[in-house]
Amino acid sequence: MHHSITFAVACLTTLSSLGSLNSMAHAELRLPSIFSDHMVLQRDMPVRVWGWSEPGSRIAVNLKQSTSDQGKWVEAYATSDVDGRWHVALPDVSDTEGSWTLTVEEYDEAKPKTPIDTKEVKDVLVGEVWICGGQSNMEWTIDQVGDSNTIPRSGIRLIKAPHVLATEPQDDIEARWELCDEKTIGNWSAVGFFFGETLRNELDVPIGLISTNWGGTRIEPWIERADLAAHPMFSERTIALQNEIDAYETISDADRTLRRDAISRQRERKATSYWAQIMDIDPGDEGGWMTPEFDDDGWSTMELPAEWENAEPGMSDFDGTVWFRKTVEIPRSWRGKTLLLELGRIDDSDRTYVNGVLVGSSTNLHDTIRTYEIDPETIGKGSVTIAVCVMDPHGAGGFTGPSMMFTVKSEDIKDWADREVMSVDLHGTWRWKTGVASTLTTNLDEESMRKPGMTPQSPGTLHDAMIAPFVPYGARGAIWYQGESNSEQAEEYRALLPLLIESWREDFGSHLAFGIVQLAAFKQASDDPDQGGWAELRDAQLHAHKTVPGTGLAVTTDVGDANDIHPRRKKPVGERLGWWALHDVYGKESFTPSGPIALKAVADGNKVIVTFDHAEGGLLVPTPEGVRESPPFAGDWRVTEGFALAGDDGVFHWAKARFIGSLNRVELFSNEVPIPRIVSYGWQDNPVRANVMNSAGLPASPFKITVESKN
């Protein structure tokens, strides 16, 4: 807890979806999951190690270079408390060469020389550790980006937090460090990888990435609930939620079961009615598209997992049902056994058939991994035909991964012969055909019996479940790509983003550097110079950068996509974050940390002079041929740089602009605004006019500022 807060009812006493991982004595020596083989430790900081054991036992922690018996080593000791918890801080380690082994030994006070339990973590590297947080644009993977030029890099490692929820801080999470290789890199955060690669290339030290993100989430779930409750803007709603969480615990198990069963029946009725409306007009249902004997030779093919909007050019605007089919051979040793069909996540809903039998259906669950149990009678012998009817009424639709496979249900694996083929891979080529165009939706969220606070949007929930388990692991900084889900509440975001940074710095230390990705361009271009929208949220992100020390800003208005909230150009985003970190955090002066940022606007008669920071080498704009052009433009006025002026009436008009003087200033004027009061730049969802950059090719941040009087 960061603050001492009195709620109406006792705070943070509820159980979570992770079970009893908290506040209990552990007779067996145990380390949290972040201490696993291949981990990366933060150099030049105390190495904090913690865990659980028998209460009152003596703990010895040793970190030793693995190269030889005479290698460097550090050690520390602790005694576990009454709950079995212990914690040590090993001295700083600066040697980034070679690997290390972390050894933890538990001793009984009665036998101080003989360990009763030992844990070893091998292949440990020492380098730079960064947290990669946010929503889908941070979570978006290398495979989803489709960057075929991405090459695995040794010395970069990642630990990925699964999507879990909790209403009190968790002390562990099911995750393990991964090596960067051909098998793993496809599921890594693209922004995180390109950021890590940029650091690795320049620093030549191991890079550890803690990837903790969840698509579609707001910022509030990532902030500790106590911090939100202490802020006057958010205290009322946060305390109300905490009271609901506590009140839920007073419901008896019997009443909870009755209510859950009733709601489940109601949800099932609504889902059945929804699909009945769709199947009534879908040609696939009547045409038997799910049966093995159906001839799909004329269908198109698609490589799955994929979203059809991105995989097929003609499907960019299609909403409705799309049918997918694939036939595979089942190993002879699997006959007569219960199988599990895993299809990964499907956006939004599906009806899944095996050999013509409906084996599962999920409705409005775009972030849920589909796993359906198939009985032996349905499987039969030989080939198996899978058919999936995917319904998506808006936005992107299809398969979003991560895994697609057939496996034998674990309890049906009885001898080694069953293990000869552990899984049948379903990735790759599937046949597909559109069913019916439809935007029909149904809301099942109200039909639930979930514990209050147990949604991905609940204040504090993701901090409790997906941040707390990593505290207080050593990290140099964090990069943050989020804001799309808060785009309609920009004024609140001006308070929330600094609050998030403060919350994480209390977790990991005040030193924590924090890189912010400003929202990319999105939606159709407008000629309104004061459209606002996403520009308001970008301004809140710029405000955090300008007011919170130790932060960076990666401007991305030039790498967006008008039609896709998930732009595929993730490499420039990671690189720009890396350049900021190299300059500001690691002192590499040759790197440019940011695009131009407006410092002030000063009136000069009917003109305005805007001065920029981070304009080293001069301000530039691209020519029609795409070549950067240096100022001045022989005194010419240009109307191509996205600037606008407003007078006392507050009505904005596009301004003419030219670069002047020391190359970090822009002169503006508009015949419609004789007395300028406010100047803006790129104040739109998709600011296509905003093309000013610095000599490093980094775009200027959109802004809106008041014009100062000339002294």
Question: If you had to describe this structure to a student in words, what would you say it looks like?
Answer:
This protein has 711 residues and is of the alpha+beta class. It is built from 13 helices and 34 strands. Among the domains are: 153 residues, Jelly Rolls, CATH 2.60.120; 110 residues. The strands form 7 sheets. Strands 1, 3, 4, 6, 7, 8, 9, 10, 22, 23 and 24 form an 11-stranded mixed β-sheet that branches. Strands 11-21-12-17-14-15 form a 6-stranded antiparallel β-sheet, with no helix packed on it. Helix 3 packs across helix 13 and helix 11 packs parallel to helix 12.
Summarize the structure.
The protein has 711 residues and is of the alpha+beta class. Helix content is 19%, strand content 29%. Among the domains are: 285-437, Galactose-binding domain-like (Jelly Rolls, Sandwich); 597-706.
Rg of Cα set: 28 Å
The biggest sheet, with number of strands, parallel, antiparallel or mixed sense and barrel status, is:
11 strands, mixed
| Highest-level CATH class of the domain at 285-437 | Mainly Beta
How many DSSP-defined strands? 34
Mean pLDDT: 88
